[in-house]
Design goal:
Length: about 325
């Protein structure tokens, strides 16, 4: 299978490319990036061809592409890739507004190409184990969720509203909304939120607290932030507590670590030893393309997660609940 990489603007591009290199029968056909220095360095690292021109890249012989551009460019690249008949794995969030996301889904359907959204948290072992326990009825009926996704400020284009479309709340809400929808099989009916910048002197939000209600009455709270400073011993968390009528169980995609003390910038580090969820995501996408099956995480999943995150901004600005 031949897969191309479209942009290395997002840091996940490197782990996705590393994952492709581990798979037998998969080649990185080429790398497109309009940042020539970044693109050439990536192409050298992965022993493949660099393309400065997007049209020439999409004309190359390949089965699929992985898009890791700035959020504002997801739509452009997805539409161009779909029209070139390439299957697509697109970094989250799917887009920066609902209209663009809907158009992306429609064009991919029209050209009969796969559109999968990159929500790797679904492939974390603790997260998958909790999903199985819920499905087996071990927790009883779900009553509520409590979720957190707190990490470090990535800087760069992430804090430029024109390129990112939103700050920490957009960046760190979509993952856990996707997990809650996956666990419950239900859609969100309303969102109430407080969004602001508390930890950094930036023009974009770096934190938000969301209160969410699902169509079946399940309630949830979500804490999304870039609140972890550089010296913090671990990047952050992606945690969910599921409150059921029989049991309450908590899982964190980044909890599996040991504590390392050393004389360095970070005197304490939490060294992660859990499974590589990015690799799980890439394995799943390759399998999806190979078998021509419906993706595990669809464009619609990306759309519904985006809707919830954008509703948080509207709610905070209007100081009212937003009904979806």
């Amino acid at each position: 299978m031949k897969i191309g990489m479209m942009s290395f603007a997002h840091m996940h591009a490197y782990s996705y490319a590393d994952s492709l290199m581990k798979l037998s029968g998969v080649d990185i056909t080429g790398i497109y990036d309009d940042d020539e220095k970044r693109g050439k360095e990536a192409a050298d690292s992965y022993h493949t061809e660099y393309f400065r021109d997007q049209e020439a890249f999409l004309a190359a012989d390949m089965d699929a592409v992985i898009i890791c551009s700035e959020n504002s460019r997801h739509k452009e690249m997805v539409l161009n890739a779909a029209k070139a008949k390439k299957h697509i794995l697109c970094e989250k969030p799917i887009a920066t507004n609902v209209k663009d996301a809907e158009e992306m889904i429609s064009v991919c359907e029209e050209h009969e190409v796969i559109l999968q959204i990159a929500f790797p948290v679904r492939f974390s072992d603790p997260i998958m184990q909790l999903k199985n326990r819920i499905d087996e009825g071990e927790l009883g009926d779900i009553v509520a969720f409590r979720t957190t996704n707190r990490g470090q400020n990535p800087g760069g284009w992430f804090i430029d509203p024109e390129q990112s479309g939103g700050g920490a709340v957009l960046d760190h809400t979509v993952h856990m909304v996707d997990i809650m929808r996956w666990y419950s099989g239900k859609e969100i009916s309303s969102v109430h939120a407080i969004v602001d910048s508390f930890f950094h002197d930036i023009e974009i939000d770096d934190a938000g607290i969301l209160t969410i209600e699902f169509e079946n009455g399940v309630i949830a709270s979500h804490d999304a932030s870039w609140s972890r400073f550089t010296e913090y011993p671990i990047w952050g968390d992606a945690a969910i507590e599921v409150i059921g009528t029989k049991k309450t169980v908590k899982a964190d995609a980044f909890k599996e670590h040991f504590r390392l003390f050393k004389s360095d910038t970070k005197s304490l580090q939490h060294v992660f030893y859990g499974n590589d969820m990015d690799y799980g995501l890439i394995q799943d996408f390759v399998d999806c393309v190979e078998k021509k099956r419906k993706p595990s995480i669809t464009g619609y999943d990306g759309l519904k997660a985006l809707e919830a995150a954008l509703a948080a901004y509207t709610s905070s600005n209007t100081k009212t609940s937003v009904h979806l």
